[in-house]
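<instruction>
Derive structure tokens from the sequence

<record> Sequence and structure tokens follow
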Amino acid sequence: MPKYFYFCEECKFSFKAYHSSKEILKNCPECATIDGLVRKVNKIYIKKQETSDSEKPIGELTKEHIEDNKSILKEYKEELLQNEFDNKNIGD
């Protein structure tokens, strides 16, 4: 699911939320203002490919890139799980 950033115009609270692209949050979870949220523009993460004069074989370079992306995905997963946990606690 995509990550979105929101800002409440009333209380200045900002937070991130994961939901489908069709959904738009409108009510602030902090101050309960109705229709007070503004969705911020997301920055797109693009990993810049560096040119290299390396004599490494293409297979080794590919393996390095896969490992780099595994760590990025692991961080994303942990962030998503934490956000899901936080959202469950808000509803309690």
In short: The chain has a mean pLDDT of 81.
